[in-house]
Amino acid sequence: MTDTRICGFICSLFRRELHHEMRGLSNYCLSCCANTLLQTLSATWEVGDVLERWDAAGVREDRGNVPLKLKRVLAAMKSDRPQHVPHEDFLRCLDRNCVRLNVQHDADEVFLSILNLMQQQMDDKALALEIKDLYKISVETHLRCLNCTSVQTHTSYLLSLPLHIKEDHHNSLEDCISSFLAEQELTGINCCFCAQCGTKTRSKQGLKLLSLPRILCVHLKRFRNSRGFTRKLNCRVAFPETFDFSEIVKERFSPDFAQNECTYTLYAVVVHSGSAVCGHYTAYVRDRVNQRWHYADDSHIERASWQDVQRTFGEDSRCTAYMLMYRRGPQEERQQPELSG
Q: Could you report the per-residue pLDDT of 307-317, keeping only the tens digit for each?
């Protein structure tokens, strides 16, 4: 290798180190929620890979096409070139699709809106389905009548896992998942109609897992509505870097469940700070290549550690984890070896 090439290689390494392998995004019209989701989507390289394969040349230049704007933003965010990231175009595009600027939003709602808009607005429906399938949790709902023991079964899917957390309690992700899938007795006004009995009866309802997604999006439901007011729960929810679904709730797997790999590794955390009335979103994101954690607060990017991420468990801080992004399977990319002199 010539001296010129060696210098160029070293400079490129320093450039990536300077940018911390991430691009900051300026806050535009209260855009911290969308900025944070863009950082997590950038770390979900599978979405970017699908959008890169999408030939959008035939798509009319439409200021309201969310997947087209997202494709451009994600490409710019991963580029080594010191170019402008056109995220303001993406934000204005969301605004035209009723995710308004200058308004505080719920991150999980905006995330699901982005996924739904990609399904609606991509002209290549096969690729749109690939993106949907990345997050698709297939479940089977069982409703068992406690009067005649007949069972009704319904198949559906989720794009994020909404987990209830217990107030004034030390929660764990594993316990929250177990509670979500556990059978619950439905009585009183929650009784369901039984066709065999011909009336509403007491019943038990539970979920069985049919398949797990490549990307597991977990929504920790920290906001409670009571008497027309919304408040935030800052109670503790501990979550691991890695966990195996089969070790938590294997009994809730459907007989048709056929996946062997059920191990998930955390790669992004959406953090909410403040109250339900006035809050701010930031993110912890793990680099694909070197596996280092970074912290993104709009345009500010800094190095972080797993210990920093653990501080978002809650209880002692109002900066709490709100959404967790896990990837199924072993880590494809391990930490790169350090350069030696």
A: 999 999 998 77
Model pTM score: 0.89
Contact 282, 202 (CB under 8 A): no
Residues noted as catalytic: 32, 280
Interval 89-133: pLDDT, tens:
999 999 999 999 999 999 999 999 999 999 999 999 999 999 999
136 CB-side CA count, 13 A: 15
> Mean pLDDT of successive 10-residue segments in the chain (341 residues)?
50 44 90 98 97 88 89 90 80 96 96 98 96 98 92 96 92 96 93 93 94 98 89 95 94 93 97 94 95 96 97 90 94 39 28
Task: Report how far residue 40's alpha carbon sits from residue 44's, in angstroms, rounded to the nearest whole number.
Answer: 6
